[in-house]
Please model this.
Amino acid sequence: MRIGVIGSGAIGCLVAGYLKLKGEDICLVGRPDSVKTIRENGLQISGVRGSFRVEIKASEQLNYIPELVILATKTQDIELAIKDNISLIRDALILTTQNGVQADNIVARYLPKESIVSSVVMFGATYLEPAKVVHNFEGSWIMGQSFNKRQPEGLLNLSQLLNNAFPTIITENIFGMKFLKIFANANNCLPAILGKSMQEVFSDLDISRISIAIWKEGLDIINKAGINLVSLPGFPIENITKITSMPMAQAAVVFSQIMKNLSKEPLYGSILQSIMRGRTSEIDYINGEFIRLAKENNVYAPLNSALVDMVHQVEKNNRFYSKLELIEKTQGVVELK
Model:
């Protein structure tokens, strides 16, 4: 199968590299700096499966008609990526990999709904410089169809193909899983605000309390919106409901222990990785999704609104906040004692 991986960030590079190692015909589409480095030095992958170099085709645009497109850009970059390659991908199967729940809707403005397969990525990777990616932790790759219950033709074959890179799962409720993944990603805003690794940030129990408050506010909004969350492999709903029902001090300790042990390598989260590369982040599609749902259902999201604003200020001013500034900005919303 001819596969185009559009997006040469952490997930795009990791997926393209592993599939290429399994002998697949891959073209990795990325920004000029990434393409130049990959052509000159190959793709460098390190982490939980070891360190190796992958020779792979790289281009700023697709240069052949693929049968499968793995769309691995950030959500805010989907539209441009499709427009740049639309003449070649009209008849391809499109696999979205983005955080949040809006990616499929954006793709459907340009391509047939029946050709779109949605996915949730449960493995983690870090990308801070062109053509170098760290595979931080393993996880499954879950896929399904957003627009109707009838799965598109070839989904089983697609699952078997991608299983060469990561264990795959087919689900009939990708929507509920994608909303739960928002909770898994919602605390990425805090390392982005402070400019530190997740391990550093969540070693601090005061910051971990803010994380619990993010989840509590998000759960209230999701419940008001009538959305049913669906458990993810390795991340059941109970991870959220049990921790948020604990006393705040106890919940912060449990959360801190989980986050500190996610990866042996420093883990920065997708939002901070974008900021460190001088890009806009996907914050509006993660914590911003809570804000959107709150407005639609006439409820409030003061904590997530404050945090989204802080991330945008970091993007705009290229200055991270201190812990004291973060606590001051969230004072009155988060129970810190």
The CA atoms of residues 136 and 265 lie 6 Å apart. The mean pLDDT is 94. The longest strand covers residues 116-121.
